[in-house]
UniProtKB/TrEMBL annotation:
GO MF annotations in UniProt: oxidoreductase activity
Sequence similarity: Belongs to the short-chain dehydrogenases/reductases (SDR) family.
Protein name: NAD(P)-dependent dehydrogenase, short-chain alcohol dehydrogenase family
Protein keywords: Oxidoreductase
InterPro entries per the UniProt record, alphabetical: NAD(P)-bd_dom_sf, SDR_fam
Superkingdom of this protein's organism: Bacteria
Pfam families given in the database record: adh_short
């Protein structure tokens, strides 16, 4: 299958990332994935790996340039999956460094990657930006103020992308997972009812739809992907 469009996918080594990259490849996309040094072998076969620190602007811009480097498959989608969770104490007992660390991992890469890719999306005639927030952003729980704030900020950032770039044919939508059924989450919560969690492949199908031209009329959406959780 000859690819005629490229997707730039961050967080490609995670459970949701590998499912999303696999689904995009199966749908005929060329996929470029920034990864940490030495981890390229964990990506699904067929993805183009680029070593990058997604908190460093120069690295992100280089990754976006690689994604846009194939004239036969222009960059048409950005999928911002990188993020992380760390539990904390209640707000008054949480060090500000721990609070800010959640902003750094969940918001900064999404901002840098989207900002670096937007000129290429516009130059290609438009495209799609997909961000990943969390149900916690709209339904918080105690002991996660940094995570909740960061994921709510992702929603606000996606709304800003939508309002600023919709007229240039760039749409931006956000998915909000509950607990994703990954090996890491199962290990962290072995006694939970895993059957109620949402499978990475199911979220990936939603992301592929949002990346594709089939979702062309949709921008600014906040889509819950909760499963039964």
């Amino acid at each position: 299958m000859i690819s005629t469009r490229t997707a730039l996918v961050t967080g490609g080594n995670g459970g949701l990332g590998t499912a999303t990259i696999s689904a995009l490849l199966a749908a005929g996309w060329r996929v470029v994935a920034p990864v940490r040094s030495g981890t390229a072998g964990r990506l699904p076969a067929g993805a183009v790996a680029v070593e990058a620190d997604l908190t460093v602007e120069a690295d992100v811009r280089a990754a976006a340039a690689t994604a846009a480097s194939d004239p036969e498959a222009p960059l048409r989608a950005v999928v911002n999956l990188v993020g992380g969770y760390a539990g904390a104490d209640l707000i008054a007992d949480t060090p500000v460094a721990d609070f800010e660390a959640m902003l750094t991992i969940n918001l900064r890469p999404t901002y840098l990657t989207t900002a670096a890719a937007l000129p290429y999306l516009i130059g290609a005639g438009g495209g799609s930006v997909v961000c990943v927030s969390s149900r916690a952003a709209v339904s918080p729980f105690p002991g996660a103020a940094g995570y909740v704030t960061a994921k709510a900020a992702v929603l606000a950032f996606a709304a800003a992308v939508d309002v600023e770039y919709r007229k240039q044919n760039v749409r931006c939508n956000t998915v909000l997972p509950s607990v994703i059924d990954t090996p890491a989450n199962r290990a962290a919560m072995p006694d939970a009812d895993h059957s109620r969690w949402v499978a990475p492949a199911a979220i990936a199908d939603t992301i592929v739809f949002l990346a594709s031209d089939a979702s062309a009329p949709t921008s600014g959406a906040r889509i819950p992907v909760y499963g039964q959780a």
